[in-house]
Design goal:
The chain has six helices and no strands. The radius of gyration is 14 Å and the shape is globular. With about 100 residues, the protein is mainly alpha-helical. The chain has two domains: about 55 residues, no CATH class; about 40 residues. The longest helix has 18 residues.
Length: about 100
C-alpha cells in the first residue's frame, strides 16, 4: 500500500479513512510501498511514517512491517534471511 498515492488518486478521501488498519486487523498481509515517488511527492520513508501513524506502530512494529515486506518479496531465501537479520540488528540497536 502507498497511503500518499491512495490519497492522491482519491481511493480514500482522507488518511484517517485509509483501510490499512482494517486490513491489518483482518490478518491481511500488507506491505508499504512508494508507488511513483516523483509523481506522488513521497518517499518510502514517508510512507512508513504515515503507516506508523495509521497503525499506531512503535519501532518494533515498524521493524515487523519491514520484515513482512521482505518475506513477501520475490528475493531468494538467502537474501531474505540477510535482510531480516539486518532489520533485527537495527531494531535491537534502536532501543539503545
Amino acid at each position: 500500500m502507498c497511503p500518499s498515492s491512495n490519497l492522491a488518486t482519491r481511493a480514500v478521501a482522507t488518511l484517517a479513512e485509509h483501510p490499512l488498519p482494517v486490513f491489518r486487523d483482518a490478518g491481511v498481509t500488507v506491505t508499504i510501498n512508494s508507488d511513483d515517488p516523483p509523481m506522488f511527492g513521497t518517499t518510502l520513508n514517508r510512507e512508513y511514517e504515515l503507516s506508523a501513524e495509521l497503525l499506531e506502530l512503535d519501532e518494533a512494529g515498524l521493524a515487523e512491517l519491514s520484515r513482512t515486506a521482505v518475506r513477501a518479496s520475490y528475493a531468494e531465501d538467502a537474501v531474505k534471511s540477510q535482510i531480516i537479520a539486518e532489520i533485527d540488528a537495527y531494531a535491537d540497536g534502536a532501543g539503545s
